[in-house]
Amino acid sequence: MKRFWHFVDNIESYLCRTLLAIFVCLLFLQVIVRTLFDFSFSWLEELSIYMFVWFVFFGASYAAKMAAHNRVTFQFKFLPDGAIKYIEAFADLFWIAFNVTFIYLSIDFIFNKMNKFQSSQTMGFHLSWVYIVLPIAFSLMTFRILQVNYKKLILKEDVRDPDAIDLDAVKADLDVNRN
Questions:
Q1: Most CB atoms closer than 10 Å: which of 9, 40, 87, 102?
Q2: What is the pTM of this model?
């Protein structure tokens, strides 16, 4: 059971890895076929584009899980550390409101407003299969935003952007290396 929950907790990561590997291989195949045989598969490019779109949206959800979305944080330098996480959580409420609105609108579009005969040009399947990523990814993103805020505010965990650079630590390292 522990393995199942680990998989669920990392679903975006697994999806992104799989989608990236497949669409890069498909595009590589397309380049080889074009170069060597002067031929191309039109469906292959279309499928790669759809996979890339799915990759982007699941990647955004994964970034939300890692607390790695871009934020303007310069103004936080002047505030006490304890207040920053509450201000970020308040700002995340606007993000959640946007996501919930977008989920509602995308579901309404896919199931009510989309042309019933709209299909992909070369592959022929209904485009709702492509657009369904919108409510799925934004729902996952909303869940991840709530999860990160729960970890920060309730569990008191230090959840930071993994790519964030601590300039004071870099300066200290430079000073140590100079001496």
A1: 102
A2: 0.84
